[in-house]
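Quick entry between incubations.
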Amino acid sequence: MSRFSIGGLIDRDKTLTFTFDGVTMQGHPGDMLASALLANDRHFVARSLKYHRPRGIMSAGLEEPSALVTVTDAFGSMPNLKVTEVPLRDGMQVSSQNAHPSLERDRAAVFGLGSKMLSAGFYYKTFKWPKTGWAKTYAPLIRRAAGHGGIDPEPDRALYDKRRMACDVLVVGSGAAGLSAALIAAQSGATTVLLEQDHALGGALLGSMEQIEGMSAVDWVQDARAALSQLSNVTLKTRTLAFGQYDHCLIQAVEAPDEMTTKAILWKIRARRIILASGAIERPVVFAGNDRPGVMLASAVRLYIRRFSVGLGKCAVVAVSDVEERNDTVAALNEAGTKVVAVLDSDVQLVKTKGRHHLKMVIWRDSKGRRHRTPCDLLAMSNGWSPTAHLFAHMGHSLRFDVRTHSLLPSDSDGPLYPVGGARGVRDLVGCLQDGKAVAHHVMAELEMHKHLNLPRAMPTPAPTKRFQSATQTGFVDLQNDVTRADIAQAQAEGYDDVELTKRYTTLGMGTDQGKTSWTNGILEIAAFGNQTAGNVGHTTYRPPYSPVSIGALVGAEVDTEMIPIHRTPFHTDFARLGCVFQTSGHWLYSRYFPQADETMTEAVTRECKAVRQSLGCVDMSTLGKIDVQGPDALTFLSRMYCNAFAKLPIGRVRYALMLREDGYVFDDGTIARLAKDHFLITATTANAASVWRYMQKCAQIDWPDLDVTLTSVRDHWASLAIAGPNARDLLAALDPDFDIGRDAFPFAAVRQGHLGALPVRVFSVSFSGELSFEINTPAGFATALFDRVLDAGAKWNIVPYGLETLDILRIEKGHISVGTEIDGRRTPHDLGLDQLVSSQKHYVGRAMLERPNLKAQGRAHFVGLRSEDGHSPIPPAAHLCEAGMDSQGMAQTCGYLTAAVHSPTLDQPIALGFLDNGHARMGETLWAHSPVAGKSVRVRVGPVCAYDPRGDRLHA
Amino acid sequence: MGYSALSLMGHAFRGNTQWPTLIAAPDMRTIYDIVIIGGGGHGLATAHYLAKIYGLTNIAVCEAGWIGGGNTARNTTIVRSDYLLNGSFALKHFALKLWEDLTQDLDFNIMYEPRGYIDLAHSDGELEQFELRANAMRLRGADAQILDRSALKARIPLLSLDMDKRFPVSGALFQPAGGVVRHDAVAWGFARKASQAGIHIFQNCPVTGFDISDGVLQGVQTAKGHITCKQALISVAGESSAVAGLAGINLPLNSINVQACVTEPVKPALDAVVNYNVGLSYLSQTAKGEFVLGGATDGYASFARRGSFERIEDVLARAVQMFPFLSRLRLMRHWSGTADITADGNAIVGQTPVSGLMINSGWGYAGFKATPAVGHQLAELLATGILPDLIAPFALDRFALGAEQDDAGIGPYPWLH
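Done. Structure below.
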């Protein structure tokens, strides 16, 4: 164990037990998985993606490129977690990834030997033969070798949630700058949210020995935390990663709560101002063997020693370019009792490291060129810092390479997001405190919550003038994707010299760390090999999320049946009681058929069809769109919306109506009922209910604001049940109407308002089935009462409820068009045989475009009916119409296709509907209906669309 | 020298320092026969086929940024041809034939993997519509199958077929030849071959104007100088309306963001491209192991190339319906591209009202799969002046004539396509 007996921010009173690759280990509350592993002397935890090199823990934060593991807990396993981001929990099972048979003896490590052949983009240059070789042989091999960890195929039982918040000031990060900004904002009365991705506040302060206001940095953090916690206007969230900035001051964050009831929560936070105090990321030195376990960032070394009280080795080499940080690192190592065997400034050149699974030696060259071999088991390295300004850049702002700080810096922000402290290159503690304060005051003044004090901002801290230079080309720039200097050099030489092309060609920065430790080094290498300045290189686009976020959280609680609310009609529970089989239709759950005993669907549907044709059935029509149209200009409005004429429609009558899109194609069909002089009720199809509503609103509000018309969607207000069949009028009479329902008093295509017994109703004599039919609408709350009465009274005629399947067959027998099949957005009224409906006397939406030559052309595909030539062979659904049989390759020239094909229970023969080129002129022709998928071809004869009661006598019974 | 395992070995021996550059860096001439505006997949494919088939090489490709940096870089790499309308099918079917041979044709591994495209149906009615498409494809010479639930389970073991879902799965349309192609490699492979043939490719060279007199193209102004030319092709995807606007052409299209995203890489778990149809969500797993996901457009016009995170949430919610294990993975990156979507949701390819100026636009978020076919056909148009059959249905004047190619039947509302 390398855990010291005292110090650090861990709770030694409690012990947490976990396993790594089956070996039981112990840590304490306060530990990250990384610190717990290191305390158990476990540095080597992973293999790299491409060359399968041994990898350790390089950093102490989200920037970790190497130490990816799979963590299994009660909810299953998650791959690719960085050991530096996972708080230690009791019972956690941790396993290494991408190594077979074991981490120590990974067979794929042999790839490292061929690294020169596996140079940048090698896969674009080879694996080309034979032609199917890539897909059949090489890609599967590469796929198996790639991919880090594996998935857990079991369903995820964890709970996730999404929540929203709004505030005046959102502070991201709780280091010196963030805390000082949050204190000012909070104490000025602003509603303040402070987000910290770590489980402890403090950021880099947790590894600092500096004093603030006479206290140790750690005490100052506790003090600030206490001050903030007392304020009711402050929301303080740890373990909450602000992962992206979005339009209109939206910050999105994912919280991983400490208690495990909810695993992760997506927070959508609208802030008036955002203070980005996300600190900076230390840059590794690029040299051969800089990836070996035992090679660590200097700041991580300090943090593990001071925050987690963990020793990292017996003897260390320190190679840090900044003198103060170098001294502080040496001090930390001394605190840990680690012998510092060499302290290197940037006059020296790091040549390489040695060691198999752990660092054994650093070889370096001094300023006089002398070569030194220093045995050690820890290298603390640093070549400067890169500000974490990702959230600033998410809105499309570029960062510019600043020569003084030697890093990409955000430009001066004019809000609403302000980078402060380390995120804009300020490195010193005093500067960070000052910067946080100054920006918080500025923000409070902007929000007019405080007078403007105009405090000076801190200046970005210049980088040391000398940095460690790379000696050979084998040093890793991107550790996760095994991108070396040589790869970047090669990309430049091959002309992939744009930073985006270099990224894509070498995969630099494309790992799960998104290049947090590699991008600045990468830009410097691109500049060096491409003979350009770092400022000219630019950078690739910063995209959210800053660090990978749980997909579970992004989906939230809306899983399985909860993804989108289920729309149920008012009759749903009544139907369910009868054993109705429902089916999802758009967002609706709609009655499909009503099986009795052990009927199959076909048997049930045949029975339902026959009942309607011979006696009586009832069907739910509640899903149809219903729009109430009122006002002096209601008639004018509707007259423009629909292409058929109905200016003379009397009060109390209903008309079938066809609506075109503005491009002249049929959009929807429905009915218009005139309830009073200036009062209409129109229906739209179920599928188009929302779009017709939207379209009417758009026309009323934008196109014709001069019309005095009021639209109200009333679909959800009415339960609508159609009774259909020869006995429909008798049933209506039995329901005790308070209005005359005689054939002459209440003819086809009329509407009556009144009561059936005590039930208030509107009854429409309209029909989709082709039978005498009445659509009874009653306020939705009376649905059950209506249905019960209809079933009771209808029992005399053996009434059957029917569903979507029967509805469809009845309309196919009648040749009625339906949305999605015949109304497919590509048909003119003429194509559908409905041109007699279209008025030539008025202006309506779509008229002008309907005049376009191709819409008027002869020979377009027309809506036709079809029967099998022999009168009994089933017509395969979804078949295409062809004049000839299929050729030897199964191909044929098509001239149309079927939109519906069923066995008509009424006619007891197969019938179909479809579109046929020039179909209106081809009545009586015989064609092939080919369905290669079903393996069926049938001869069919073209005929009229209506196969049943073509004169419509039954509607008037 | 070509690319091969042998050349990799040879160059490895020389420290990988002697590789030739992908494309040459020539000086710009003042006169070219043809200027191709836009160095994405489509523009570079056109350049390649002009050289390969017609031997025309006095051609400049002017790319405003870096080659392949527009929608070629941003798409979800899916190729397929499962369309009902013959115009849409035929062009993409031809593209699939070209994809098959492109690696050898270009001497560049573009990594076409026919992993199979699977379009999920969520009701029996929807499945019948898919059957209609499958039959159309079969009768036109493409392979397509209908998978029932058990066949689906066998093909994609991890696909959830639970009925306890908001939109249970009834079956699927399966196109075996559908799959993925490495998107960047397409641009690079075409560029390299075109450059080797002598075509000049200029990066960071935006076009700033056109010289047009009496409705006839005379030349093109670029950031690197003026070019006199008789013909030019605008092939700039999301920038179409802006660049066509420089020639006074007002295109019937909207520019709308499309979101895409990618998970962390994991070991192979999905060997197909799968599409969810109630609100789009399509996904596949890359060779590196990431799941790449995309969906429908944001639904409002924008050039921002960022945009609606709600769309990402929608796409992920649907993906988790299909593959519940995804909820344990993590989103690694999400991005956006500008889709140029026309009044019928299909492309505009061919002549413009300006004589000599051709256009290739309106591909929305469906352009990648057509890349080689469009390049092939446009090369024929530019080289011979004859409009090839496969692109004839996509002429700009079809909106005036009423010859829309509206596969989805949505109509003149780009934001709904």
